Amino acid sequence: MQTSWQSTLDPHERDAYSAFLEGASDGHFTQDPAFAAVAVAGKRRATRFFVAREGKEIVGVAAVLRVRALGPLLAPVGIVQRGPACGDPSKLEAVLRALVRTSRFHGIARLAVMPYWAGAQVEQATAALVAAGFHSVQEVDGAHAFTLRLDIGGKSDEQILSGSDHKKLRYELKSAERAGVVVRRGEAADFAVVEKLERELALAQGRRVQSPEWFAALASYMTKDDRRGAFFVSSHDGEPIAAALVLRHAKTTVYLAGASIVAPRPYSKMALPLFAAVKWARDVGCDVFDLGGVPAEGDTDPKRAAIAQFKRDFSKTPVPLVPEHARWF
Known about the structure:
There is one protein chain. This protein has helices at 11-23, 36-40, 92-105, 122-131, 157-160, 167-178, 191-205, 212-223, 271-283, 302-309; strands spanning 2-6, 45-54, 57-70, 73-79, 110-113, 135-136, 146-151, 182-185, 229-236, 239-249, 252-260, 288-293, 319-320, 325-328. Helices cover 32% and strands 28% of the residues.
């Protein structure tokens, strides 16, 4: 297996990398070369792009985040947020071993990975990680290892909302509409609304606040190609009260960020903008809407439980993801 490790990809290599990632069933937007600017924004990080080939065929890719130690110097730590991507769980062990060899050669002493396999494929992917020398380092407050998902491909609004599991959601949507809440798709100027809502809510909940640089990089990433994602803002009497932001990769859309005003309202503040995002994902051809992280079984932290509660109106069955794994060299 031949590998490459680059700080930037030339146009031909970038196109090949992106085409492979787009077709990989374990692909994720965090591995997109264009997303690298968002991943490092406001943080002391740099990105290196790993590509593994068998002959001329790409079999694995990863955007490896390197922590900056001092000035241009990089710490001996590498992080792959939702990867590496290989498109076939049977190839994951070989791709991981190639990534380990290449990472070690480039001065990494500890590598953390989190391949984006879900459901029934988690067991096979985890076995590949263990065989390649990795062990679980998953923490309850780390990157989420459980999510909620909606099957949306080709479904009408009524089909998405059908069933007893969505009875409360149907009520919440109608209540907000009757109260006069309106939703619109956000434009470039509305990123300031999302940032303000997210900052105020994060401070109220005692969560870490994303930096202005991160929001600016995310806005740039999304506005350069409107197929990458969308966000929706809901208002009442002209006042923005909530926003939901999603990113798309291939046939999956992921709920990335959302926030609402802190003051209580007699209706769900997030239901309408999040359902608008679901409909957008369906209309651009996605089959799956990933609602993002929910607490693992046994996690009793009230803040994490409260943050995830509104997602359960959309889907109630947790879907396991591959936990974070790491190894020292």
